[in-house]
Amino acid sequence: MNARIDRDTEASSEPVLEARDLKKHYVVGHRLSRTGKKLVKAVDGVNLKLWAGETFGLVGESGCGKSTFAKCLVRLHSITSGSLFFEGRDISALSMRALRPIRPHLQMVFQDPYASLNPRRRVGELIAEPIRVHTPSTAPEIRIRIAELADLVGLTTEQMERYPHEFSGGQRQRIGIARALALSPRVIVADEPVSALDVSVQAQIINLFADLQERLGLTYLFIAHDLSVIRQVSTRAAVMYLGSVVEVGPTRDVYETPAHPYTRALISAVPAPSINRARRTREILEGDSPDPSNPPSGCRFHPRCFQAQQRCKDERPVLQDIAGGRAVACHFPLTGPPR
Predict the structure, then answer these.
(1) How would you classify the pairing of strands 219-224 and 187-191?
(2) Contact (Cβ atoms closer than 8 angstroms) between residue 312 and residue 302
(3) Could you tell me what percentage of the chain is helix, strand and coil, using 3-state DSSP and rounding each to the nearest 5?
(4) 110 CB-side CA count, 13 A
């Protein structure tokens, strides 16, 4: 899935999808409760550029805001502030009616393949629904398209008459992928599409994503909490912590020479073959991830950071460019490979 990108082309063209200082805040609680209302900054100023034909990986622990960010990118959630551009057009504040022509080109594959499918409808009907809504296709044309999509994701036309509960988890995810492909999108946002699957099935679905990208020229934003998955599928990767991106760059560089202490701690926690175990030092994070409704001052990571200094407590770092097309949000970025 590691699609190659011509950097000269990238420099002279616009990204297919871009988020600028994107924020999504929620008000939770009730004014009459003991704790009152709280503002949760689920996504707090994320910048991202997604280039045509690439697979961009987004990784982070549970609760860091990855899924909320994904739903903001496809406008399933409204945006609190910031800007979102699709092929150069600002879609941040478009109404549902104005978004309708854009929906076919920007699709999503959800984490839970069962919860995202209506259990009362046959699979063929679920795949056909976006075609009926967005195109003037006739019934025979829709049947042909459903057969094409089924074959594309490794299912049969006979299976299209079944209900979602009659399929395995991997097959249901194939159904979700077929539905996302129904309108020939340019970008697919995949929100942890393999996290609910067995390891052997994960490999099959990852290979399917790679095959579809090669055949259809798709662009992916691939979200996961499993670092090994992101390393396998992506050309570039970003690490997210408490609603913000703390490091971004070419996947291989981010993994081999992490510049942010949180990235290094995540990578050090990945199980290693016994032959390498003696050469690796585990970076232990102290404490739990902070409450997003009451984040720490300064750097959000400083209470758990093994090299935090006073500046980290007083001043929040911004994402700054470093060598090799990378950026890191740290006052004291690390250098060299992990110990």
Answers:
(1) parallel
(2) yes
(3) 35, 20, 45
(4) 13
Q: Please, are residues 246 and 330 in contact by the beta-carbon 8 Å criterion?
A: yes
Q: Which helix (H) or strand (E) holds 25?
A: strand 17-28
- Does the pTM surpass 0.85? The reply is yes
| Amino acid code (one letter) for 323 | A
Give the helix ranges, DSSP H, for the chain: 7-12, 66-73, 96-99, 123-134, 139-152, 169-181, 199-216, 227-233, 251-256, 261-268, 274-277, 310-314
Q: Is 27 helix (H, G, I), strand (E, B) or coil?
A: strand
Instruction: Look at residue 47 in the predicted model and tell me its pLDDT.
Output: 94
Q: C-alpha angle 282/285/290, rounded to 5°? A: 160
Confidence of residue 44 (pLDDT cuts 50, 70, 90): very high
Are 306 and 283 a contacting pair, CB within 8 Å?
A: yes
Give the Cα separation of 250 and 234 in Å (integer): 9
Q: Of 132, 158, 162, 135, which is closest to residue 147 (Cα–Cα)? A: 158
CB atoms within 10 A of CB 205: 23
With a cut of 90, say whether residue 282 has pLDDT above it: no
For strand 106-109 and strand 55-59, is the pairing parallel, antiparallel, or unpaired?
A: unpaired
**The token pair that represents 149 in the structure block:** 């999509």
Contact (CB, 8 A) for 186 and 197:
no
Instruction: List the alpha helices (DSSP H) in 257-304.
Output: 261-268, 274-277
